[in-house]
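Re: the pair you flagged

First of the two:
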Amino acid sequence: MLRNKKILIISPSLKVGGIERALTTLANYFVTQHIEVVFLSCLKGDRFYKLDKNIHVIEPNFGRDKGFANKLKFYPQLVQFIKVNCKAQQPDAVLSFGDVFNP
C-alpha cells in the first residue's frame, strides 16, 4: 500500500502575520490534496490562524524572552528542536520561508 506524501511546514509561529497566513493557507490546502501535513511552530503561544484538524501541530516547550541572554539560549535550542522533529517526522519535503526569523 502506498503512503501519502508528507510535508513538514516550519513556521515562525501561529500568531498574526503574513508568513504565518501564507503557511497556514498552504497547510490547509495540502490536506485537501491528501498530503499528510505536520506544522512545526517555532514559538508557542496563542494561535491566530486555524488549521485543519488533520494537521499535526508541534510546538516547543520552551520560550523566547526579549533579553540577550535568553537569545543565546533560545536559538541553539530552536535549531535542535527543528533538527530532532524533522528527523523524527521523516517528511518527503520541508517548507519554510521568512525574512528575519526564517527557521
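Second of the two:
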Amino acid sequence: VDRDGRFVSQRELPRLALIRPTLRSDDMVLRAPGMLALHVALDRAESELRVRVWNDWVPAWDMGALAAQWCSDFAGRALRLVRFDPEQQRLADMKWTGGVAAETAFSDGFPLLVASAASLADFNARLAARGTPAVTMQRFRPNLVLSGLQSWDEDHVDELVLQTDEGPV
C-alpha cells in the first residue's frame, strides 16, 4: 500500500510483476531482480492498520519497516507491505458472483482468477497472426491454470471441485 494506505497494483506499478513470492511453512520469501531475498515471517506483524482496496476499507497487518524498505527500494516509491487480517471478511461484489458470497482478501475483486492453457494458445495464435510476440500465462496473473479444456471454456465453468486422494475438498 502507499503512504495513504491505498493498495498499489501492477496496473500502476508494472515492476511489481517481477516480484516472485515463495510461501514456505513459516515464512514468505520475496525475490526480485537486483534485490536480496526478503524473508517475511507469517506469524508476526508489526502493527494494525486500515487499508483501502478499491472502495473497501479493510483491517490489515503491517509487516514491518524492513519489508516496507525492501518494497519501496524495488518499486522506487514509498510502499508498505501489508497482510490481510484473517479474522476479517471481505466479499467479492455479488453482481459478479451471481449472488454467491465469495470471500476474497486483497485481490481486485475475486478470490480466484482462472485461465486455461488452450485459451492462452488461442490468444497467442491471434497475436502471431498480427505479427505480435506471444505472451506467457504470467501476463494474466491467474491463481489457477486449467488444462484439458477447449479455448475459452473456463468462461463457462460454474463450479470447480478440487479432488484429493481422500475425496473432494
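Residues 117-129 form the longest helix (13 residues).

-B.
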